Amino acid sequence: MRTPAGKECKYFYGNYFRGRNVEECRLLQASGQKWSADLCYTCPVPAILQANACEFLKLQGTVTRPLSAVFQRRVRVTAFCEKTNRSVSEPQIGCGECHPLPPVFQVKE
Ligand code: SF4
């Protein structure tokens, strides 16, 4: 579903049927975080989902505010691979188990 920022995100839910105006972020809701529409404008999740559609990649979102008086709230994402049971440092790329890089990208020694 398209977020208030105009990006596709599978975690966004909007119900506008018959005058309703219900909007939720199911990613932040799952971790008990409070969502507001402004978070979607800087959220990294739509880009991660576009780059990596691995079924084993599980994302967890938290809302942070770096230097609370200066910066606005942002979504911080951590990723975990359910197949290899390890955290994924670069969710756009993945853990490398299912989708290894083609040989042309590997460095030979
Ligand atoms: S905050 Fe991020 S994960 Fe949540 S609906 Fe918006 S873009 Fe999707």
In short:
With 109 residues, the protein is an alpha+beta fold. It is 11% helix and 25% strand.
Give the N-terminus to C-terminus distance in angstroms: 46 Å
Bound molecules: iron/sulfur cluster
C-alpha geometry = globular
Unreliable segments of 5+ consecutive residues: none
Compute the average pLDDT. Answer: 91
Instruction: Please count the beta strands (DSSP E, at least 2 residues each).
Output: 5
Number of domains: 1
What's the helical proportion of residues? 10-25%
Strand content: 15-25%
Q: Layout of helices and strands, plus pairs?
A:
Blueprint: E1 12-15, E2 22-25, H1 26-30, H2 45-51, E3 57-64, E4 74-81, E5 86-88
Structure description:
The structure is a single chain. By secondary structure, this protein is α+β, with helices and mostly antiparallel strands. The protein has one domain. It is 11% helix and 25% strand. It has 2 helices and 5 strands. A hairpin with a 6-residue loop joins strand 1 and strand 2 (22-25). It is globular and about 60 Å long. The relative contact order is 0.16. The structure holds iron/sulfur cluster (SF4).
